[in-house]
């Protein structure tokens, strides 16, 4: 009977060990899911904020606006995805790029690309009236200590 008790305790300890490994994985997954949800909410909030900027000025450096969250430094133009300056891309960094939620620091930035809607080879905001905004939110995963990021895209039209 002593042997049976030892075997039972061994099986019980193996089971408990397996459950503890699953609990650790669940905690890590929960932490990542929470960070991903926060990043998504932050990205949507920032996109809505960017849509309040005048169409002509969304890719322009502005360090004087009364709203601190709308101040930004933009560089460019650089060549677009087709490699041509006729379809320019501007890279913008907010004056306050870091936002802390639940002791987790998120950083965000965005790019503005002119879209050649009439396919004449040159993207012109005055003629085509369309800009694509790609916004990226990044953070460091607290458990894995790796950088994670989330990208969202929207299209902005004149008016």
How would you sum up this structure, described in words?
The structure is a single chain. The protein is α+β, with helices and mostly antiparallel strands and 159 residues long. 31% of the residues lie in helices and 31% in strands. The chain has 1 helix and 6 strands; from the N terminus they run αββββββ. It has one helix at 2-50; strands spanning 72-78, 89-94, 98-101, 104-114, 130-140, 147-157. Strands 1, 2, 3, 4, 5 and 6 form a 6-stranded antiparallel β-sheet that branches. Strand 3 and strand 4 (104-114) form a beta hairpin. The longest helix is centred in the N-terminal third of the chain and has 49 residues, at 2-50. It is elongated. The termini are far apart.
How would you describe this structure in keywords?
159 residues, alpha+beta
Poorly predicted ranges: none
Termini gap: 84 Å
Assign a percent range to the helix content.
25-40%
Mean pLDDT: 90
Radius of gyration: 24 Å
> How can the largest sheet be summarized?
6 strands, antiparallel
What spatial form do the alpha-carbon principal axes imply?
elongated
Number of strands: 6
How much of the sequence is in beta strands? Answer: 25-35%
Number of helices: 1
The helix/strand order is HEEEEEE
Structural class: alpha+beta
Question: What is the topological layout?
Answer:
Blueprint: H1 2-50, E1 72-78, E2 89-94, E3 98-101, E4 104-114, E5 130-140, E6 147-157
Antiparallel strand pairs: 1-2, 2-4, 3-4, 4-5, 5-6
């Amino acid at each position: 009977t002593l042997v049976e008790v030892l075997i039972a305790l061994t099986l019980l300890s193996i089971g408990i060990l397996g459950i503890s490994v699953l609990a650790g994985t669940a905690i890590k997954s929960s932490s990542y899911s929470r960070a991903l949800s926060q990043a998504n909410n932050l990205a949507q909030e920032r996109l809505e904020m960017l849509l309040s900027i005048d169409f002509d000025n969304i890719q322009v450096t502005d360090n004087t606006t009364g709203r601190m969250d709308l101040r930004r430094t933009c560089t460019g133009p650089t060549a677009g995805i087709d490699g041509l300056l006729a379809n320019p891309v501007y890279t913008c960094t907010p004056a306050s790029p870091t936002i802390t939620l639940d002791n987790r620091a998120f950083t965000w930035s965005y790019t503005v690309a002119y879209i050649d809607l009439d396919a004449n080879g040159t993207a012109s905001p005055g003629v085509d009236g369309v800009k694509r905004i790609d916004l990226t939110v990044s953070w460091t995963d607290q458990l894995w200590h790796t950088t994670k990021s989330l990208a969202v895209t929207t299209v902005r039209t004149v008016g």
